[in-house]
Amino acid sequence: MNLSLDIHNKLPVNGTTRTENWGGVFLEGTHPQVNVFNVNANQLSGVDSTGALYHFWGATTVNISNFALHGTILAPWTNVNANAISGGVETHVASLKPFLCCK
User: By CB count within 10 A, which of 3, 25, 51, 57 is most buried?
Assistant: First the structure.
């Protein structure tokens, strides 16, 4: 939970998020080490799973359905529900790239 608090308190949003006409999400960051984006849940789509940290600050419930969420979820106070149209939910282990934050 300390990491979640540090990220929320010490890393302000410094990047730009834009939804493209073709459905993709464009994230533009200019910081050389860490870029922080505010992305609406409806904008999430497949990304590099080793370079994405989804930080659901303050959320009590996150529902994931009908799409693949690639990346690491940090949600210490959250119930995460993952439902598929049929069958189970597929997960993979992909370590998050090391990066500096919260100094």
Answer: 25
Give residue-wise pLDDT tens across range 54-91. Answer: 888 788 888 777 666 777 888 888 887 776 555 555 66
Residue spans per domain, the chain: 2-83
Tokens for 61? 């419930």
State the Cα–Cα distance between residues 45 and 19, nearest whole angstrom. Answer: 11
Question: Which letter does DSSP use for residue 43 in this model?
Answer: G
Structure tokens at 93: 């282990």
Distance of alpha carbon 58 from alpha carbon 5, whole angstroms: 10
Q: What angle do CA 90, 96, 99 make, to 5 degrees?
A: 165
Radius of gyration of the chain (CA): 14
The values of phi and psi at residue 42, to 5°, are -70, -15
